[in-house]
Amino acid sequence: MGARDADALVERVDRLLPQTQCGQCGYAGCRPYAQAMAAGEAGVDRCPPGGDAGARALAKLLGVPPRAYDRSLGEHHPSEVALVVEADCIGCTKCIQACPVDAIVGGSKRMHVVLEPLCTGCRLCVPACPVDCIVMLPAPGPQGAVQAEQTRSTS
């Protein structure tokens, strides 16, 4: 496979991933995981946010046997977004530092806000919060590449 073909495969694999950038797969984000799968260095079963449907879609694309996602890496949750409970936020900035996609804004000792369209639902902000003022809510619409790809293919 040439470099151009390899790059195209990485792009296709990456588009199927939910883009949470959560790191539960053991890679620094969705793109490095996609590169490892395209190179045959990682299995299709390492993405809890993608769940079994994501693992099946990846297996089909890569021409490998389908496998359920590895539940030891984390739970699969429906698409979610974070919400900061304003009354409880102390403005510590720990959630801002934990967010891999810069979806949380706010200043030190000021209330923070999640920019919903940017939030991937990775949940990394939740354990970072010392006062437990972040809750996860169902996403308002299709979120993540697997859901977006399914939406495109049925349209």
TrEMBL record:
[4Fe-4S] cluster 3 binds at residues 99, 119, 122, 125. [4Fe-4S] cluster 1 binds at residues 22, 25, 30, 47. InterPro entries: 4Fe-4S_dom, 4Fe4S_Fe-S-bd, 4Fe4S_Fe_S_CS, Elect_transpt_cplx_RnfB/RsxB, RnfB/RsxB_Proteobac, RnfB_subfamily. [4Fe-4S] cluster 2 binds at residues 89, 92, 95, 129. Pfam families: Fer4_21, FeS. Binds 3 [4Fe-4S] clusters. One of its GO terms (biological process) is electron transport chain. Residues 80-104, 109-139 form the 4Fe-4S ferredoxin-type domain. The keyword Membrane applies. This is Rnf electron transport complex subunit RnfB. It comes from the Bacteria. The keyword Iron-sulfur applies. Keywords: 4Fe-4S, Cell inner membrane, Cell membrane, Electron transport, Iron, Iron-sulfur, Membrane, Metal-binding, Repeat, Translocase, Transport. Its cofactor is [4Fe-4S] cluster. PANTHER family: ION-TRANSLOCATING OXIDOREDUCTASE COMPLEX SUBUNIT B, OXIDOREDUCTASE. Residues 5-64 form the 4Fe-4S domain. GO terms for cellular component: plasma membrane.
